[in-house]
Amino acid sequence: MDSLRSLNVLMPYLEVSKFLAQKGHQISLISTPKNISRLSKLPPHLSYSSNISFVELPFPQVHGLPPGVESTSDIPTNKVPYLKKAFDKLEIPLTEILKTSQVNWIIHDFAPYWLPGVATPLGINLVALSIFNATAHAFISPPSVLFKYPRRRSEDYTTVPEWIDYPCKIALKSHEMASHQECMDEDVSDFLRVGHVIQGSQFVSVRSCLEFEPDAIHLLHKKDETWQDVKKWLDSKEEKSVFFVAFGTEVSLSQELMHELTFGIEKSNLSFIWAVKNRPLVEGKMGQDIIPPGFEERVRDRGLVLRGWAPQLRILAHSSIGGFLTHCGWSSNIEVLGFGRALILFSGASSDQGLNARLMHDKKVGLEIERNEMDGSSSSDVVAQTIRQVTVEPEGEPLRANAWAMRDIFGNLELGKKYLDDFARFIKEFAPSTGNI
Q1: For residue 178, how many other CB atoms are within 10 A of its CB?
Q2: Most CB within 10 Å of its CB: which of 89, 234, 315, 363?
């Protein structure tokens, strides 16, 4: 899938399609009408031509984008952000096509950062096919670095990144970065698009080779090891037997409470993955220091502790995941329910988190860990019992069934689009303010 690029950049995707078709694969090349019309027609006498079909998605229009524009070759640089906004509106029509298709794999470029969220629940694998070389990807940074240490200033891109672990002098010039920023969507930068696409894909292919860029390719391989290790570990577990632990980015709990949670996780005797952020988390201590000594050694056969970045969407989508121990942030809750996972509710006691915990408990899609109402304390035994009930015990089956049904709401893109359309219509039709309150 590729819909933003000029013809010379689209051609590699057509060539890969031809190659795979010759190997007997059925290929649907998805793009917009104008872009498909620019591609060379396949001679009908070729033995593999019947294996390739072209699927046209009408290109949406947005304010600021000239009519008829469907690729970067049609517009000046300062109009490209509008092209990307229009491209992102293809998410809904593409989803509808995929729901009724027999597609097993999607090969795509960097632009559809939303594609992992569409494909993963449908069981479709993704390959990010990049026209960039390995050095460019190493410079942009792997997702494990990109989301952990985001570069916020343009000058950050004019020096060699610290994660490049081989001799290198390659970086952008200031004028190049300024030019690139002109064509980036201010809501979603190209760097974040690349990061989300790579994070959500099963494989990434760059247009280079070991013989030419061994150092950069080896670096990228090292940075991709996190998900491969996690997947291998999850593949070894039974279906819905593992619970996932993540406490967001702004939770602050006491050391004593975190230790009770930790011992409860251990006492549950279930397999788990715990994503620990390396940030001030409890009483000024860094996330990596909150785990009691000896814990990881004792649970090494059934527990996986991930420090820093974790491929959360991929983990939640895996069939081995049966529950999610959450701090009850609303964004986390709806993301998890989009995958139909039952919630083990432990409020971080900040903002709306306590109310969210009561709501999810009341909706019977999760179970709140009992705590002292005055000081918020809990015991490791209660934590363990709640984890087991939500994840594997028979009495938790209604919770798991209710959570699974929530995919029809929180994983329903069409429903989300309806509410966004209603929102946009309200903004458009609401009478102008008179200045009176």
Answers
A1: 11
A2: 315
